[in-house]
Amino acid sequence: MHKHNNMYQILVKPILFLFDPEKVHHFTFSLIRTLSKIPGVSSIFKSMYVVNDKRLERTVFGLSFKNPVGLAAGFDKDAKLYNELSNFGFGFIEIGTLTPKPQAGNPKKRLFRLKQDKAIINRMGFNNGGVFEAVERLKKNKGVLIGGNIGKNKVTPNDEAVEDYKICFEALFPHVDYFVVNVSSPNTPGLRELQDKEPLTKLLTTLQSMNKAKNAPKPILLKIAPDLTNEQLEDIIEIVAETKIAGVIATNTTISREGLQSKDKNEVGGLSGKPLTNRATEVIRFLAEKSNKAFPIIGVGGIHSAKDALEKLDAGADLVQLYTGFVYEGPKLVKKINQEILKQTQK
């Protein structure tokens, strides 16, 4: 049973890590898609990685999740592979970040592996095919719980940003289970300024009023940066209370470069992976304690082991998400986390 668990580490990862990370990403997508088309292969993936157990089920912001381990946004930006990726044991998949118009993102090379640090720096810049293309793909959903992560186009000035979020919200509404408002990527110039109290309140209030006008409103979450001060985090708690959004995703990538070893450590962009573990957990704990657990939190940032995931859950997260840990550890990480949660449940 244990053998296939290490196949990724011993065989697959060393080969993949020889090549440019962005090319590998596209190659991996093609490979998973091609393999998944072979009859029976999806069932094999499922039998290897999916842990089905009633005790893993979670109801959060009114949605029922098969298990609390999700795939973070940025991996399946364009909703091209969510059905296949769900076979690796994820309880939910967040697609995006999507923008109204397609955009190429920043010039390549824009994705860097920091192997010594078990980290990644990216400055992708919301490269995506646009929200309307993604909508067409989401129509082929075979029962995967989907989050839709939305942003603004680079060319849209901040004072018109609300319009971009409105377009994405409206287009995605019938096709996703929850929304994530991304104002925390460091790779769209000026985007993080939308985290300031006034513009953020306005943005969320606008989306909430559109949401309330629907027959069945959907949960709207806010994804925040790990670089916010305690004072800013207190603002976030107030904004959630005021706008009554469903919850917070903590956290996005960091612009900090503290304690890194790898040669690419000074590349511009957002840092994800192991160096983010403790800060992301601190932010979760601060939000949970200071708000008296007033809203659900999805914990993300540097989860590379089951222990890392449990720390986030203990700190106050209701669900967790992987990205960099999934790249470094492979799909067995999803399974290990779910198995460990079950062990804790039995105690």
UniProtKB/TrEMBL annotation:
Binding-site residues, substrate: 77, 122-126, 182, 187, 252-253
Enzyme class, first EC level, given as a word: oxidoreductase
Enzyme Commission (EC) number: 1.3.5.2
GO molecular function, one term: dihydroorotate dehydrogenase (quinone) activity
Record-listed FMN binding positions: 73-77, 97, 149, 182, 223, 251, 273, 302, 323-324
Domain of life: Bacteria
Catalytic activity: (S)-dihydroorotate + a quinone = orotate + a quinol
Record's keyword terms, sorted: Cell membrane, Flavoprotein, FMN, Membrane, Oxidoreductase, Pyrimidine biosynthesis
Xref: InterPro entries: Aldolase_TIM (IPR013785), DHO_dehydrogenase (IPR050074), Dihydroorotate_DH_1_2 (IPR012135), Dihydroorotate_DH_2 (IPR005719), Dihydroorotate_DH_cat (IPR005720), Dihydroorotate_DH_CS (IPR001295)
Membrane topology reported for the UniProt record: Peripheral membrane protein
Binding note for cofactor: Binds 1 FMN per subunit.
Biological process per Gene Ontology, one example term: 'de novo' UMP biosynthetic process
A GO CC term attached to the entry: plasma membrane
Cytoplasm is among the record's keywords: no
Domain Dihydroorotate dehydrogenase catalytic, chain residue ranges per copy: 56-342
Pathway of action: Pyrimidine metabolism; UMP biosynthesis via de novo pathway; orotate from (S)-dihydroorotate (quinone route): step 1/1
Location within or outside the cell: Cell membrane; Membrane
Active-site residues, record numbering mapped to chain: 185
Pfam families the UniProt entry points to: DHO_dh
NCBIfam families xrefs: PRK05286.1-2 (NF003645), PRK05286.2-5 (NF003652), pyrD_sub2 (TIGR01036)
Annotated PANTHER family: DIHYDROOROTATE DEHYDROGENASE (QUINONE), MITOCHONDRIAL (PTHR48109:SF4), DIHYDROOROTATE DEHYDROGENASE (QUINONE), MITOCHONDRIAL-RELATED (PTHR48109)
Summary of subunit composition and partner proteins: Monomer.
Function: Catalyzes the conversion of dihydroorotate to orotate with quinone as electron acceptor.
Family: Belongs to the dihydroorotate dehydrogenase family. Type 2 subfamily.
Name used for this protein in its record: Dihydroorotate dehydrogenase (quinone)
